[in-house]
């Protein structure tokens, strides 16, 4: 099964899903499996 979200580079099991913060959409991406987080800044 494929997912529209990118795979997590840390655990490679979950997917990175976007979260909105303040007014900037997709600023923070969090993994659905581990606690890995990526900020686009």
Overall description:
It is a single chain. This protein is mainly beta. Helix content is 0%, strand content 41%. Strands 1-2-3 form a 3-stranded antiparallel sheet, with no helix packed on it. 5% of the residues are buried.
Mean pLDDT: 84
Describe the strand arrangement of the main beta sheet, using strand numbers. Answer: 1-2-3
User: What share of the residues does DSSP label as strand, in percent?
Assistant: 35-45%
The helix count comes to 0
Low-confidence stretches: none
Estimate the global geometry from the Cα principal axes.
globular
**What is the H/E string?**
EEE
- Radius of gyration (CA) equals 10 Å
Distance between the termini: 31 Å
Largest sheet: 3 strands, antiparallel
Class per helix and strand makeup: mainly beta
Oligomer type:
single chain
Quick rundown:
This protein is mainly beta and about 40 residues long.
Summarize the helices and strands and which ones pair or pack.
Blueprint: E1 16-21, E2 24-31, E3 37-39
Antiparallel strand pairs: 1-2, 2-3
Keyword list:
mainly beta; globular; 41% strand; single chain
């Amino acid at each position: 099964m494929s997912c529209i979200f990118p795979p997590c580079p840390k655990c490679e099991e979950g997917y990175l899903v976007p979260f909105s913060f303040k007014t900037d959409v997709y600023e923070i991406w969090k993994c659905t499996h581990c606690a890995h987080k990526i900020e686009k800044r």
